[in-house]
User: Fold this.
Amino acid sequence: MNKLAFEKPITLTTLSQLKKNNKKIASLTAYDALFAELISTSGIEVLLVGDSLGMVLQGHDNTLPVTVDDMVYHMRAVSRGNRGSLIMADLPFMSYASPDQSLESAAALLRAGAHVVKLEGGAWLAESTRLLFERGIPVCAHMGLTPQSINRFGGFRVQGRNPDQASTMIEEAVILEEAGASLLLLECVPVDLGKSITERLEIPVIGIGAGPYVDGQIMVMHDVLGLTLSNLKTPRFVKNFLAESKQGIPGAFADFGEAVRTGTFPSKEHCFF
Assistant:
């Protein structure tokens, strides 16, 4: 068996302890065995097999075409390359429209090697979250900018700037925590809202474009390496860590993790206000 990158495999208990001790969590997407190994051995606690693969690997303009079969294929590859990180997997568009469908889709991803499944949405996911929790399937709720709802949002837009919307988001985050969510991923929200939600919840909050006060940061692997397709716009919250790395790609991953843990990333230029 290949040596783990950590003294012990990272678990949800590990992440909860990091939050309790005010230590940051670093997370990156991974889609294959090679990069899963490189990222996990760089000390990144969480690997996300994201439906972002629809954009960065398949060349789509959004994540909607991704299927459960796509996710299972990449999940298996990442699981083989992982060296002790916690692996989270997205449930793709329309694979969790009902609680029963959520259970079936999530089970497929756990069989393929996932430790946690991620669902995009608010309080309407409470019933599915509760069912998955009761069946032993850990859930990460994804709020704020939820890419699978891009057509409803009218594009990739910051969420929660309206006070009423921000208040609702906080209330729905609490509902999902009470329903059994183990993690919350918060995307593209103002710094103050990210701080408020993180302080309100007992579960770890991992942000992407959610400011520096959340419990951890996540980025798409390709963004850390400065790789972007010509049809995709580089988001404000992205930083190219490869540009300054002295140890190539592994160094870029390690530098990202260190920047998250020391609080030097994200800086003001990567945040929304």
About this structure: The chain has a mean pLDDT of 95.
